[in-house]
What we know:
Layout: H1 3-10, H2 22-32, E1 37-41, H3 47-56, E2 63-68, H4 79-83, E3 85-89, H5 92-95, E4 104-109, H6 115-128, E5 129-138, H7 143-152, E6 158-161, E7 170-174
Parallel strand pairs: 1-2, 1-4, 2-3, 4-5
Antiparallel strand pairs: 5-7, 6-7
Amino acid sequence: MDPIAFCTQYARRPFRKWSVTPAEWEILHVQAQNRRNILEIGSYLYTSSLAFIAAMQALPECILTSIDPVHRDMDLRDDALQRRWLRIIGYSEDVMPQLRPHAYDLIFVDGVHNTPAVMGDFQRGLKLLSEGGTIIFHDVNHWKIRKGLLEMYPEDRYEWHNSTTRSKGLAIWRM
């Protein structure tokens, strides 16, 4: 799927800046397929949100929950998809403990970029992850994020998708 075409078709505002690269968008889109409950920590420009929403088209019961401390306008041209996208304004450390344990089969972490925050989101995410679920971390080329991940699990426990962009990249961890 062409990420630029999808975002242009479904977003009510033009995309001028991307928070994930088009290659990362594709990986997120593929990882989101056949998932029923997706949690996104940090939605910033909603580029990653739209990768998940693109996958949701094929699964009518899929719900996306996005947590971010800042509300930014983003409405979809598809009302049915819009109703299945829950946006919660708040910080992950405050919101995640209120969510249902073991309810999410995919969690995307792109929140605060420091070691304690990444470790905290990982630990809270483990409590929310369903059996066989996946956690994807963004900006793993940023040393503070990679350090947090490696303090949780050894490097070979992750599937790394490095980017040529300085602080981008993905790490996929599977239960």
